[in-house]
Amino acid sequence: MGTVWVAYSGGCDSHVLLHLLAQLRSDSSFELRAVHVNHGLSPRAATWAEHCRTVCEDLAVAFVGLQVDASPKDGQSPEAAARQARYGAIKKLLNPGDILCTAHHQEDQAETLLLQLLRGAGPKGLAGMAPDSPLGPARQWRPLLSVSQRQIHAYAHQHGLEWIEDESNQDTGFNRNYLRHEIMPLLRERWPAADATLARSAAHCGEAALIMDALAQQDYQAVKSDRSTELEIEKLLQLTQARQKNLLRYWVHQAGLPLPSEVKLQQILTEVVPAAQDRMPLVQWSGAELRRFDGRLYVMAPLPEFDTTQVIPWDDLDQPLLLPDGSRLSCEQIAQRPALDLERLRQGRVTVRFRQGGEQLRPAGGAHHKALKQVFQEQAVPPWRRSRVPLLYHEDVLVAVIGVTLTDALLCQTSTPGLTVAWRQA
């Protein structure tokens, strides 16, 4: 196990968690550190940071203080902006094998369930917070998730702990605070076990979400393209609509992209999936876009602007070449044929360029010259990718459409060293 970190705000909950782990550390062999994030949102923020530092010194726990800009972007809530800034900064501290412990408790879980319910979330959202989840290269643990706040406060008083009170926690303009101070007390008055019951419902939803993911993984193996991660529309249509939605959410999540709303999912199923074969519909949402081409669905981050006029020299073929979009080219010697002639390639200027229009080539093993556009069409390269495919030139001769085909211009003979160019996309 790597370093155990405590996200230490200075409040009662995180102080109790830090104190507990500091006691356990004396009987266990792990390194314990605390990280405090100053969001700069309170005039008392510097005082809080100093308090946290002092507590850590008393407990002989290494302390790391971070300063972040938690200003919300357009359309972003202050809570979401602070959370994103906080976790973004903490992730940079973490190494593989590290664990970040946060002091979320039973009442936090109940509030999270209600907030997700009011947002119209499905089982994955209603599962609330997991006791153990990935966080960048590390893991995030919530060891107090089944513990009530009453128990946490009892521990704090028993051990004479001192903590700070963030005045923003009383501001009912924030959704979570409104639930905490206005709604939850009424629910507990009627249903005293409301927090535990809601947390139990979140656990049930978590189990249902795991089952849905297992089904989606099974469907994904049956529906995805044999050659890549795209979905085959003909196979997708063999599933019920509920399973189609479940698979689409799973697929987008696996791609590391934000999930589409229910409205966007319906748009995909009613406008993109049944579109005519010659159409290329596009559905966009914040941070992602979904396209259709050649009977397949593609999902990706929004494509940035791309300069197709750039000419990139590749002076040392023994070293990988980093392209402006973050992808990487590398030369790899191979025994298979066709392959590029390594020795002849070294004897001239090698550059990487991009499609300008009008390029002609004779593919390796082909009998006739073809337009690059025709080659892209025959190889089913999606139109939005065609201008971004690297073209390898020797002097001013096109010798490879990387990831698509070699030309006959610089092929090696059977007895000479041959190579291929691998394209690893970002």
What does this protein look like?
The protein has 426 residues and is an alpha+beta fold. It has 14 helices and 21 strands. The protein has helices at residues 12-25, 45-59, 78-91, 106-118, 123-126, 149-158, 175-190, 194-223, 233-236, 241-254, 262-272, 342-346, 372-378, 383-386, and strands spanning 4-7, 32-38, 62-67, 99-101, 132-135, 138-141, 231-232, 282-285, 288-293, 296-300, 312-313, 321-322, 328-334, 340-341, 350-353, 360-361, 370-371, 391-394, 397-401, 405-406, 418-424. Strands 3-2-1-4-6-5 form a six-stranded mixed β-sheet, sandwiched between helices. β1, α1 and β2 (32-38) form a beta-alpha-beta unit. α1 (12-25) crosses α6 and α8 (194-223) packs across α10. The protein is elongated, with a radius of gyration of 28 Å. The protein starts with a strand and ends with a strand.
Features:
six-stranded mixed β-sheet, five-stranded antiparallel β-sheet, alpha+beta, 21 strands
Task: Summarize the SSE layout with pairings.
Elements: E1 4-7, H1 12-25, E2 32-38, H2 45-59, E3 62-67, H3 78-91, E4 99-101, H4 106-118, H5 123-126, E5 132-135, E6 138-141, H6 149-158, H7 175-190, H8 194-223, E7 231-232, H9 233-236, H10 241-254, H11 262-272, E8 282-285, E9 288-293, E10 296-300, E11 312-313, E12 321-322, E13 328-334, E14 340-341, H12 342-346, E15 350-353, E16 360-361, E17 370-371, H13 372-378, H14 383-386, E18 391-394, E19 397-401, E20 405-406, E21 418-424
Parallel strand pairs: 1-2, 1-4, 2-3, 4-6
Antiparallel strand pairs: 5-6, 7-10, 8-9, 9-10, 11-15, 12-13, 13-21, 14-21, 15-18, 16-17, 18-19, 19-20
Helix pairs in contact: 1-6, 4-7, 4-8, 8-10
